[in-house]
Write a structure and sequence with these properties.
InterPro entries: DNA/RNA_pol_sf (IPR043502), Retrotransposon-Effector_Assoc (IPR052343), RT_dom (IPR000477)
Number of helices: 7
Oligomer: single chain
Protein name: Putative RNA-directed DNA polymerase
EC number: 2.7.7.49
Keywords: Nucleotidyltransferase, RNA-directed DNA polymerase, Transferase
Radius of gyration: 21 Å
GO molecular function, one term: RNA-directed DNA polymerase activity
Strand content: 15-25%
């Protein structure tokens, strides 16, 4: 611990990791059907927990209100309520809009000593795969974050905050126009909850093209990839033909109302008898 505090070094034995593959669904056949959970040593967990507690205290002052995950005082319900308000008001005003939900495939200023600590935690990670309960092989980490590492959620939140800043800059330059809601006419372009990001756009070809350029730029320098098979775009008072063309350009699906957002229905009608079955 003293060596880590001074030099930011975690030896490879302390940071040894066993990867346990957990199936996401029944009859899993592909590698992508499994979720890799990292089983890490108790000593490393103590180090990571201490850093995570310290990081949690400053995230609320660093990350904007658009991000709702892993930030003290913010709740998942806040994002769901705002998203539904955007959709409902756009419908009532009979305006055209787009709702685009994306999913990242996988899932850093701070002082020199802090960056050294974080770097020591990430660079020293090494892995073995658990096969039938026994570790096989050993290889070092080259990129990415470990599911099961107490630091991972907070570090990922910092990474996707860059996307929030890019969207903010694009909106300020009027490269992207969001949907306006409320008496004070607040413009909403996106909401984030960990790796769940949803965009609200004025239905316009230039808007759509500029959003795609922002996403491509973010993925290029962050190393994250968008899982297009889990992305969907839904229109608000939008022609079906335009929606099909936009979905083809992005390689995503066309969603239907109500769509699922953070496990709850978005854009549904609460007065309909089957609304409650989606909860």
């Amino acid at each position: 611990m003293a060596e880590f505090h001074t030099d930011g070094v975690v030896n490879k034995v302390t940071n040894e990791t066993y990867i346990c593959l957990i199936p996401k669904k029944a009859n899993s056949l592909k590698v992508g059907d499994y979720r890799p959970i990292s089983l890490i040593t108790s000593l490393y967990k103590i180090i990571a927990k201490l850093l995570a507690w310290r990081l949690r205290e400053v995230l609320s002052d660093t990350i904007s209100g658009v991000q709702g995950a892993f930030i003290r005082g913010r709740q998942i319900l806040d994002a769901v309520l705002v998203a539904n308000e955007v959709v409902d008001e756009t419908r009532k005003k009979k305006k055209e809009g787009l709702v685009f939900k994306i999913d990242f495939e996988k899932a850093k200023g701070f002082g020199d000593r802090w960056r050294k600590w974080i770097g020591g935690c990430l660079r020293s990670a090494n892995f073995s795969i658990l096969i039938n309960g026994r570790p096989r092989g050993k290889f070092d980490a080259s990129r990415g974050l470990r599911q099961g590492d107490p630091l991972s959620p907070f570090l990922f939140t910092l990474v996707v905050y860059v996307l929030d800043r890019l969207m903010e800059r694009a909106r300020d330059c009027r490269l992207i126009e969001g949907l306006v809601v409320g008496r004070e006419e607040v413009e909403i372009t996106h909401l984030q909850f960990a790796d769940d990001t949803i965009f609200f756009l004025k239905d316009d070809d230039q808007n759509w093209n500029n959003l795609n350029m922002v996403l491509e730029s973010f993925c290029l320098f962050s190393g994250l990839k968008i899982n297009k098979s889990k992305c969907s775009v839904v229109g608000i008072n939008t022609e079906a033909g335009r929606l099909e063309r936009m979905a083809d350009e992005q390689g995503c699906e066309i969603g239907v109302w109500p769509m699922k957002y953070l496990g709850l229905p978005l854009g549904g009608n609460p007065s309909k008898p089957h609304f409650g079955t989606q909860l």
